[in-house]
Structures are given as C-alpha cells and as structure tokens.
Specification:
By secondary structure, the chain is of the alpha/beta class. It has nine helices and eight strands. The longest helix has 15 residues, at 166-180. It starts with a strand and ends with a helix. The structure holds BIS(adenosine)-5'-pentaphosphate.
C-alpha cells in the first residue's frame, strides 16, 4: 500500500507516519527528513538547501523528486510507502505519478490531516527531539517521562529545528496554502482522498487513519 499524508506544517504527518512504520512495517519517505540528513552530513546538497529551508520556502521540485526516486529504488516491492511532506506542488504531484509508475507502484490513499492553523504555531514552536536517536517530543503535548532524559535511548541532549520559530512557521504555512493545498483536487478527482481531524488526540488520529487503511474510514 502506498499513501500520502497531507497537511500543513505541524499537522502531525511525521508523528502519524512513525506510528504506521512501527505498526505496519511501512517505509516513511519524508523529504524534510532527507534534506535535514543532507545538511547534517555536510553534503553539497545540504549546503544548497540550507538557506531556503531556514526561510520556510520550498526547495526545488527537481531536488526533492530525485530524493524520492532514490528512496523508492532502495525499497523492497513488498514495502508500502508513506509519503510525508511530498508532493508539495503540482509539479511534484506529476513527478510522483511518473515515479510510482516507474517503480511499479500505485497510490491507494491521500489522507489529509485537517487542523486549526493557530494551534499549529504552538505545536511547532514547542517541538524538540532527542539529539542522539531523533525521538520526537513536545514541551506541552509529549514530554519525556523523566525530565531531560530520552524515553527511547536515555540520552540527555535534545535539539530544536532552526525553522521551528514563529516567523518561519508563518512562511511555511503560506507556502502550504499557495502551493500544496491546491494539489488536493488532483487526488479528489481520482476518489482517493480521505480527511481526518488532526486536532484530535494523537491516538484518535492514528485510529482514524487505520480505519481508512482498513477500508472502514
Ligand atoms: P518538513 O520537514 O516536511 O516540515 P513540515 O511539512 O513543515 O512538517 P513538520 O515536520 O513541521 O510537521 P508534521 O506535520 O510532520 O508534524 P509533527 O508530526 O512533527 O519540511 C521542512 C522544510 O523542508 C520545508 O519548509 C522546505 O523548505 C523543505 N521541504 C521538505 N519537503 C519538501 C518538498 N516536498 N518540496 C520542497 N521543499 C521541501 O507534529 C508537530 C508537533 O505537534 C510535534 O511536537 C508532535 O508531537 C505534536 N503533535 C502531532 N500530532 C499531535 C496531536 N494530534 N495533538 C497534539 N500534538 C500533536
């Protein structure tokens, strides 16, 4: 099964993708994570995209589609893909169709996480992760069980994304409204869009997504 999780910054795409990976053995294809990995590894690509990402604007369609092509090529046929943060423009949606066909895959679901934008700023500016294993936390919604200690690996150092400040978040939301939300009708015309209340509790969101994937949504 191949699915797209669609929604503005902070809607919970990454959170829900992680759960699908854990529960269903699917593979998360997050272009944001791939670009951050390139930056962390100090690659030429990382240098090329750093300023754009920190401004909240979108990097070029060619770069992200090439990343997705590589990742699809490395996956086993039996592994389902969760597209998280891709596609984000009409050109990327077109590329995804071509890439899926080239890799012998089909798209079954596009799940839109519907959220209240004002709440997203709080979600994003409160987000942090373990500096060692990358486990995700939030100042208010998901604190480590023991203060300053990662639940997963026991590390004591945490980090925040440079683009998780209020001004950049607003730009990221404008990009979403202008370039990403308009791709939904492409998938609506194919009858594969489902909507989930992304403001609900994380477990409820997961249950709603599972119901859709099980054909009961
Ligand atoms: P990217 O990394 O994709 O960021 P984003 O789309 O802005 O999404 P986020 O990761 O911020 O949010 P999310 O929906 O995954 O929310 P999360 O689950 O973390 O992109 C970053 C940048 O890279 C872009 O700005 C662009 O420059 C570039 N880029 C990436 N892909 C690109 C592409 N395809 N084309 C061009 N450029 C691209 O949740 C957020 C917080 O809320 C967490 O702390 C979580 O714990 C909490 N939370 C989640 N769900 C709930 C809930 N139900 N209730 C309460 N809290 C919740």
């Amino acid at each position: 099964m191949n699915i797209i999780l669609l929604g503005p910054p902070g809607a919970g795409k990454g959170t829900q993708a992680e759960r699908l990976v854990a529960g269903r053995g699917m593979v998360q294809l997050s272009t944001g994570d791939m670009l951050r990995a390139a930056r962390k590894a100090d690659t030429p690509l990382g240098h090329q995209v750093a300023a754009v990402m920190d401004s909240g604007a979108l990097v070029s369609d060619e770069i992200v589609s090439a990343l997705i092509d590589d990742k699809l090529g490395s996956m086993g046929d039996e592994q389902g893909a969760i597209f998280d943060g891709y596609p984000r423009t009409a050109a990327q949606a077109e590329s995804l169709d071509e890439l899926l066909a080239a890799h012998g895959r089909e798209l079954q679901h596009v799940i839109e996480l519907q959220v209240d934008e004002d709440a997203l700023v709080e979600r994003i500016t409160g987000r942090f992760s373990c500096a060692s294993c990358g486990a995700n936390y939030h100042d208010k919604f998901k604190q480590p069980k023991q203060a300053d200690t990662c639940d997963v690996c026991g590390n004591h150092e945490f980090k925040r994304r440079p683009d998780d400040n209020e001004a950049t978040v607003r730009t990221r939301m404008e990009e979403y409204r202008a370039k990403t939300a308009p791709i939904l009708p492409i998938y609506e015309a194919r009858g594969i869009v489902s909507r989930v209340d992304g403001m609900a509790d994380m477990d409820e969101v997961t249950a709603a997504i599972e119901a859709i994937l099980a054909g009961k949504g």
